[in-house]
Design brief:
alpha/beta, Rossmann fold, 2 domains, six-stranded mixed sheet, 40% helix, binds 6-O-phosphono-beta-D-fructofuranose, 6-phosphofructo-2-kinase activity, His_PPase_superfam, 6-phosphofructo-2-kinase domain-containing protein, fructose-2,6-bisphosphate 2-phosphatase activity
């Protein structure tokens, strides 16, 4: 078997196969997000984007007719360009390229397989998406009509008619993968993960991908995220610990429950961490709750319970190292952002298959979770602003998520410390503390005042 000759260390080209509206693009982007999160640098090369570059505006379904020679030439050229860029990406030292095209004929697959294995010496895996579930198919079609750049300039009626004809052209040409005659490694994914079958699939990366695809279900509709209400530690600028909510935090818990009963669906479920402040925040929400240890806040090790000022005073070098590389910095006896990303993996996989979940989490944990769904660059995560007393709603739109942030009207401190300009070990204390947000020194009896007016 040819695929066996290629070393496990060689990069991998994934080529999607299937008719339009079978969920290929959604699968491509979800898989890319998953692989990137797992340290495999991955990029999607969308064939239809290349096609659109050759046509100022999408004309009609006509270019997909098998006997339209000009149309076929444009489509072949676009596919070649997408594959060339994918191969270039792999040659640059990246791990995985996903070629999001239809690859519906045996001849196309054979050519691509030979080019990748024999000419480039790279690994290749085909993923065929099949969808027999009419409801899912309808949903996919509606998403294409709403979000595909091809249909932006058409009325809804025209777009429906055009997509239907495009599908007919493709159906006439489609040759499903047949393992008895095609010498290729492939995975067949039916109904977005309902059934997954593998044929001649070898290798570490491929096995991981197979595992991910087997656990995948249709995309979630709506997910909510919020940090816990302001805690006593937040109010006095201390990190970590397991303190209770401040009076304002308790008020947020009540307002949050009211807000959700007005906006969320009745089958909402709530996931909290195992820490008091998240459980107290969820207390008034009339929904089933689950406390998950993996959602606990970043463990700050020897700095747990300190203020940033105390960290600078007692461990100035550690404080500077953290500012130099906050993503990778691990607190002595504690964790780094990379560590929490690793422990969040199973939660994120589970969440991808859920709908109507509220996650009540913590600053660092929610930065990582939101960063995952929004496909942010890893280095951006530790500085993302996820304020207290704010509900973040993610709605799946195709393979992307739309973000809506709702600040609820309950005062709280700001806990977001920006990266200071000077991160050197020899910096002055003033330089190290310049971006520390204001907070109370001790928990005041009246927490309804602005911290900048009362203390420091
Ligand atoms: O300050 C609140 C908090 O949740 C701490 O418990 C945690 O250590 C910190 O945020 C994480 O934020 P950063 O990584 O910006 O210090």
């Amino acid at each position: 078997m040819r695929a066996r000759r290629i070393s496990q260390f060689e990069p991998l080209l994934i080529a999607l196969v299937g008719l339009p509206a079978r969920g290929k693009s959604q699968l491509a982007h979800r898989l890319a997000r998953h692989l990137n999160w797992n340290g495999e640098s991955t990029k999607v090369f969308d064939c239809s984007e290349y096609r659109r570059r050759h046509m100022a505006l999408y004309g009609t379904h006509d270019i997909f007719r098998a006997d339209n020679l000009q149309g076929s030439a444009v489509r072949r050229r676009s596919a070649r360009e997408a594959v060339t860029d994918a191969i270039l990406w792999l040659k640059e030292g990246n791990s995985v390229a996903i070629f999001d095209g239809t690859n519906i004929t045996r001849e196309q697959r054979q050519e691509l397989n030979g080019y990748c294995l024999d000419s480039m010496g790279f690994r290749i895996l085909f993923i065929e998406c099949v969808c027999e579930d009419q409801e899912l198919l309808e949903k996919n079609i509606i998403e294409i009509l709403h979000y595909s750049a091809d249909y932006k300039a058409m009325s809804e009626e025209e777009a429906v008619d055009d997509l239907r004809k495009k599908l007919e052209h493709y159906m006439r040409q489609y040759e499903p993968i047949d393992g008895t005659v095609e010498e290729i490694s492939f995975v067949r994914v039916e109904n977005m993960g309902e059934t997954v079958t593998a044929h001649k699939v070898y290798g570490q990366k491929e096995s991981g991908i197979l595992g991910y695809l087997s656990g995948m279900r249709t995309s979630p509709q709506v997910l909510y995220f919020t940090r816990h209400g302001e805690s006593e530690f937040n109010a006095i600028g201390r990190i970590g610990g397991n303190s209770s909510l401040s009076a304002r935090g308790q008020s947020y818990a009540r307002v949050l429950a009211e807000h959700l009963s007005a906006v969320a669906s009745r089958d909402l479920r709530v996931w909290t961490s195992e820490l008091l402040r998240t459980k107290q925040t969820a207390a008034h929400i009339p929904a089933p709750k689950r406390a998950i240890r993996a959602l606990n806040e970043l463990d700050a090790g020897i700095c747990e319970g300190m203020t940033y000022e105390e960290m600078q005073e007692q461990y100035p070098q550690e404080f500077a190292w953290r500012d130099q590389d906050k993503l990778r910095y691990r607190y002595p006896w504690g964790e780094s952002y990379i560590d929490i990303m690793t422990r969040l993996r199973p939660v994120l996989s589970a969440l991808e298959d859920e709908d109507n979940i509220l996650v009540v989490g913590h600053q660092a944990v929610l930065r990582c979770m939101l960063g995952y769904f929004l496909d942010l660059k890893l280095d951006e995560l530790p500085y993302m602003n996820v304020p207290l007393h704010t509900v973040v709603k993610l709605t799946a739109r195709g393979y992307k998520y739309e973000v809506e942030m709702t600040k609820l009207p309950v005062e709280c401190v700001d806990t977001h410390r920006k990266q200071p300009k000077n991160c050197s070990i020899s910096r002055t204390t003033a330089d190290a503390l310049v971006t520390v947000p204001s907070h109370y020194d001790t928990l005041p009896s009246n927490l309804w005042q602005n911290p900048s007016e009362t203390q420091l």
